[in-house]
Each structure stands twice: as C-alpha cells, then as structure tokens.
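Here's what a typical entry looks like (Maspardin):
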Amino acid sequence: MLNMHNSLLIIVDDDDSKVWSLYDAGPRSIRCPLIFLPPVSGTADVFFQQILALTGWGYRVIALQYPVYWDHLEFCDGFRKLLDHLQLDKVHLFGASLGGFLAQKFAEYTHKSPRVQSLILCNAFSDTSIFNQTWTANSFWLMPAFMLKKIVLGNFASGPVDPEMADGIDFMVDRLESLGQSELASRLTLNCQNSYVEPHKIRDIPVTIMDVFDQSALSTEAKEEMYKLYPNARRAHLKTGGNFPYLCRSAEVNLYIQIHLLQFHGTRYAAIDPSMVSAEELEVQKISLHSSSEQEEQ
C-alpha cells in the first residue's frame, strides 16, 4: 500500500480551499510523465498498483486527486495551472471513467497550445448525457453526503464477482467513504453536467481506449460512441475487470499502459528513463500480449 503521508498538497488557484493532492513517483528527469485521473469515487491512491509497477520499470507517474470544481472549464483551468506549477509542458493522461472524460475535455481545452501528448481512456465516456442525470446535476450540491454516496454505490457491480474484483470494490468503497460532501457533490456535478467532447479538436492525439467485456457502469452504446469518436484509437480490451480494472486486473492494465507508451520511447515525450528500456524485453511483452488477446477472441 502507498503511504498517504508521501502525497504532495498543492494549491494553484487564488482560492486556498482548492487543494490538489498527488503522488509524483519515478525519475524527476522525465519531462512528459503519465498522469492518472481517478473516477468519481476515487482518490489518488486508487492507482497504487500502477505507481508501484510502472516506477519499478523506470516510468515517472503522477496520480492526482481533484479539488472541488463545479464546472469543466474551471477544472481545466486549475489543471493547466497545476501542470505549470509542476513545470510540465506536455503529459500523457490516463483517465478512468469521469477522469477519462476530464482528460478529453482538458485535451480539447488546450488544443490551441497542446498540453496532452496522448490519452489512455479507461471505461471512459465522451458525453455526460448517457447518465440521464443532466437535470439533477445542478442539485447535487444540496444533497447530504449519504445520499451522494448512495448514488455512486448504485453504479458499483452487484452480483457475484471473483475475489480480486471483490477486493477492488471494497477498496473503492473505502475511498468513497473518505470523500466529503463537497468533493462528492462536485465530482457528480462534473460527471453529469450537460457536456460532450468535440473530437475534431483532439483528433491528432494518440489514444488507447481501454474497456472491459463484463459488467460495468458503461452501457454498450457509450462504448460504441467512443469507438466512433476515435476510429484510429488502439483498443485494449479486458475480458473482465468491472468498473475498476486498474485495481483487480492490474497486470493486464499495466501491460497495456506500457504498450501505449512504447510509441514515445526514444523521443522527448518518453515517460520512461531511457536507461531502463530493453528492446528484447518489450518485444517479448508485445508478443505475449498479442497472443493472449488472440486467445480471448477465440
């Protein structure tokens, strides 16, 4: 488990109550790290399996927790200031669910002077109307925390799941409990406020779409919409993994992340320390992943 005391707290807005909390791990010499954005119920440490594995392989990764923002523009502006504060002009983003939507909105927001080098979108969506909650989005701030938690828990898998998935859900429930009323209300507002991604603004960014074939909060229509928006995206399909594959299928997720980042090795946008790259090793990984995805399709 990650030690929460190692997280950094950073304020970039004039409003002192807006605190970003983050883990920045791996070689600081890397100027284009991979940044993880959590789902509604998540905190920075839901990506502990990615942080531990990827930094061990020489990557620089940053996992974030958002302050309270009530609209997408305000979030994008705050995130841009955070990157300025960290002196990062370009980054790779891994966004899970709401994090994936915000990653796309940020890429769109900065499209004139791009800050996003690539996107990995895990169980992500491109249009908030899929949740049919746009009419309640403006009232979340009024609801008590227990009601907000109930809304979020309604999207968690119900029914029998394997032990790893059960552990993943328990961990997320635990993280959800740690969030206050305004944190939850603001995230649900961002999740459901009427908004969609304008793909023509982020057409040129390399994208990997990561999704699961078993039950998750995303409808088949929402997934199809993502494939349509990004016809050239690489697809990373996981047979199972539910809403939180980065917790319960971390080895597969980490492998897909490496394969996505491989295209930047040897460029100034590499997220890995060049001395840690071994060509043979990566070749073996690509082959093993290719054969395992072929087996799944059979």
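Residues 8-297 form a domain with the Rossmann fold fold (CATH 3.40.50.1820).

More examples are in the samples folder.
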